[in-house]
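Appendix B. Raw example, untouched.
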Amino acid sequence: MEIELRDYQWEVVQPALEGKNIIIWLPTGGGKTRAAVFVTRYHLGTRSGGKVAVLVNKVPLVNQHYENEFKPFLTPNYNVIPISGDTELKEQFAYIVRMNDVIICTAQILQNALISTEEEKHVELTEFSLLIIDECHHTQKDGVYNKIMAQYIEAKHKKVSKLPQVLGLTASPGTDGANTFDKAVNHILQICANMDAQMITSSTKCKQQLDDVVPQPMKIYDIIEERKQDPFGDKIKMMMTSIHSHLDDSSITRNFGSQIYEQAVVELEKTGAIESNRVKRACALHLRKYNDSLLINDTVQMFDAYCYLEEFYENEEKMKAVLDQTDRFLFKLFNDNKEQLLSLACKKDYENPKLDTLENRLLEQFKVPNSQGIIFTKTRQSAHALFGWITKSTRLMAAEIKAERLTGAGASSQTKHMTQQEQQAVILKFRQGEINLLVATSVAEEGLDIKRCNVVIRYGLITNEIAMVQARGRARAENSVYSVVAKQGGREMQREFVNEFREGLMKRAIENVQNMPQRDYQIKIRELQMEGIISRKVKDQKQNTMKMGNLPEDVRFYCRNCNEAVCHASDLRIIEGMHHVNVNPNFQIYYKVFGKVNIPRKFEDWEPGGIVACRKCGQNWGIQMIYKSVPIPSLCIKNFVVELPNERRPFKQWKSVPCQIQDFNYIEFCKDNILDL
């Protein structure tokens, strides 16, 4: 099948056809992927033994790129194969690479293969002749794209030959929060350095054609009326004030229902864990839930906010084996007030006015025949709540609005995750017209092949300019509308103005980088790459020194909730470089296992068992791994407080714990714990 490129696509791919490393910058819907397919076919046709890796950052994009773009235009002349985390093919990745011409995979799969010490799983970057990185603006900081490209750049500076050509694709490199032109330019140069790009290409000669193909929607601010009365929210705040009185801590902000308050109670919980202060920690956890309820009340229905709290307390009562004085106070506070909360939540006179504004916008847009739209919202929970509200609205049902949710695939404690298959089924229904409205989280912003919409609504969102550009790019139908539902002068509106400013800053910065003298550009890129190499080495040395600073037997772990001392670092081992398991048979007296953990993917040597929780207080500690038929508790570091010789603190990641933990030895473990039984 022939690949027909538009003039502006021809314009941006020319340097890539000459073998140069470039970043293609085209808007959402501009055909970046089709251009990459053309470069791939040209590359394979002109280079003997060529091999291409197409890297994506989301699992659904693997099959999407394969089915819609690469397979139709490259087979049967070339062997093209998709590999993602929920397929068993990833375990034979090295073999698959050697047997195929084009491998489309999530970046993490390639990264795992690059660092693997097992011969049958290991690959080298030099096995590829072309590396395509989708949504390449993520190639920064500790992102997996940047880890791959860091290896590439270090190999290049060591004069390793036969490194692959690199092609990056992006709709918006962003500014990394820059508020000045110079900082925005530095960010663009940093992305170019991380990608080892010789240039960013965009359409200049054929800009008019690009504008005709990808028209910009009309932007509308749908201003919300102020809530005249909020007795439900007032009641929640009164209950929070009671908790503050019990806590007897006047240092915390009382700005209830805000992100600032959330940060304050997160810090309070952390302090309580470090100090072994159960009152402080328990109150902080409950205050955060009440604050979440206020945020939900401000976004969707009062009843959703009530249900959130009710579910939390039901789960807490199930988990708590023993109640202390603080637990009893907190449970009593909710139980004494829940009937009044429920009564207030059901009074329609006090309902969230945002929903009326949203309903009116949808009704206005869906007057147009065959309308399709997306509502972008912050959390899965709000997506589920909005979906429920839409399906119960008689006015929206009368307008023949048929909605469905589209959320992320990762597991969540709050709402059920969507599997990749469920995501694809929803997108297919949307594409075929069975449904005409998606209620989506950020999963729908980047990359997914979603039909052109005539209305895109950002609802209760405070994000960056990249997310704004990506979401707006979904409104590509003729006479489409991009709506921001926000309070006059509210945080959402303020952030939207900031994002518009930063988008303009980004465009000016890219133009500046594109017009730099080539020698100046190359000097700057090399300088940034050398800085990156040195900073990574310094960071690694510091981490290694830190790891060797404490003996494992001197590092002790305490349950974050009840402060029970449960193990030492010397009891732990590492499986597959990431799973931290406790191999001490005496550890079983401290935990219980219940339920079944569902992870929407398969693993080569293990499968998930139940949840591992503190036997004393019910705090979740991690999961039970069934590793080669042997059950072993795998621990999550954020559920513990770590006592070092000179300090006591919680950690977010295992790699930050300052001691060396040994690798797991399956044979040794079985001899010590299984075979003697």
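End of appendix B.
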